Amino acid sequence: MTVEQLAAYIDHTLLKPEATRAQVRTLCDEAMQYEFKAVCVNSVFVKDCASLLKGTNVAVCTVVGFPLGAMSTEAKREECRIACGEGAREIDMVLWIGGLLSGADDLVAQDIGELGYLCRERGAELKVIFETAMLSEAQIARACELSITAGAHWVKTSTGFGPGGATVDAVRIMHREVSAHGLKVKASGGIRTLKDVRAMVDAGAERIGTSSGVAIVKESIAEQA
Prior knowledge:
Blueprint: H1 3-7, E1 10-14, H2 21-34, E2 38-41, H3 46-52, E3 59-64, H4 73-85, E4 90-94, H5 97-102, H6 105-121, E5 125-129, H7 137-150, E6 154-156, H8 168-178, E7 184-188, H9 194-203, E8 207-210, H10 213-224
Parallel strand pairs: 1-2, 1-8, 2-3, 3-4, 4-5, 5-6, 6-7, 7-8
Helix pairs in contact: 4-6, 6-7, 7-8
């Protein structure tokens, strides 16, 4: 892929708890320079990013129920509502993993569905983070099914704060389960090189969440020089 095509896959990400406003400003500057698809930040920075990126093609993405997913639906819904109001156009919510493992499928679907409805109402897209390192292949497939039923737009591998990140196998399973239903796959967690990106894209990912976006693009530029 060209450098421009590569950049269009990338959600330029800064989610560490010690992130500062200066670092977020740099993140946005880099996203504009390299024409990344989006920046992904914690919700406290959404308003700043929306202001910095106004008039550009870089979207503002934020996380909800992060990083555990074990918050009430009401809390996630309010976090989502505020983020959309402040300029977020993509919401990456964490699946209630314990609910999935407990077989509480109706409640997990309700959790996703309420945020999906809110996002559609406000012109945003919803991605559901599974934390695939905690799940079996069958559980990943079930999480995909619930996300489809509940009206999500994307499924996503990992928070980057769990026991493992994205794997080719997980991305392949997710793509297999959701692609026919119009959902897309975002791979995130541990993706640091151009080789990593290519592997995830080949497996079916249509978006890459990474804090190494600049290094990856520079690697591509050097390769094509």
